[in-house]
Amino acid sequence: MLRSVTDYASRQAALRQVDCRFSITTNGTLLRPDDADFFEQHGFAVTVSLDGAAAQHDRLRPFKGGKGSFERIVERIAPLLAAQRRMQVSARVTVTPFNLDLPATLDLFIGMGFHSVGFSPLLHAANGRAEMGQAELAEMLEAMIACGLAFERNVLQGRRYPFMNMQNALRELQRGTHRPYPCGAGAGYFGVSADGELSACHRFVGDEQGAMGSVDGGVDRARQAIWLRERHVHRQQPCSDCWARYLCGGGCHHEVLARGRGACDYIRGWLHYTIGAHQRLRQLAPDWYAAPAGAPD
Hints:
This protein is α/β, with parallel strands linked by helices.
């Protein structure tokens, strides 16, 4: 299905002279060697879910029978890592209280050949397990800053160090990003269920709070208008008085609606650090900002 959709979209984009790009997120366990050729042919951005070194990942992502999945994933993604030219393969790490050694994880995955590596805290889980509390978020912030300082050192020494969170933060600060929303959910993109129902994003599939119409009936513009009005950062509390509101946008809609805003101190701490890093690198390594996003840095 994925191949068929990609081929169809590529043909239609060529006919209409539209720039069509592709991305996929996978746990990596079912990849085949010829998938590497297909993703490379179409220039896919491939995100692989890996949550740390073997011991940490296997604890968090075992197979149904309890066996660890790290070894199989590493075996299955090897052809992708070797093939990437047009394709870019990234590692995405969900951070829990059980895998907080982020500097070691970052170095491991960079050494494996990933184009970039990013971290995201688990703030809301369907089963309520392994969620990050205030103490864990404070520890994560320290680890993120340690990764950021390593990024700064490598940039100053002219070495590539693809820490995605840092790259994205610095480029957004350089552009002067001003965001009234945390993402494009319900505006620039939608989630689509297997039944053809539209939702604000993939996390709201099956959740009435983010229902946005259907593929057959189209976007429910009334619901969309209410969503965009009510989710604007000016309507959120305590966001309206927060200095970081236009850099943060109010936080992930799904996580906020499910669990509130327990990550605000973490977000402000990370932004405070990256603002300082931006100023340092602007003075000491201005050429880094001139490189196009996605290029070796």
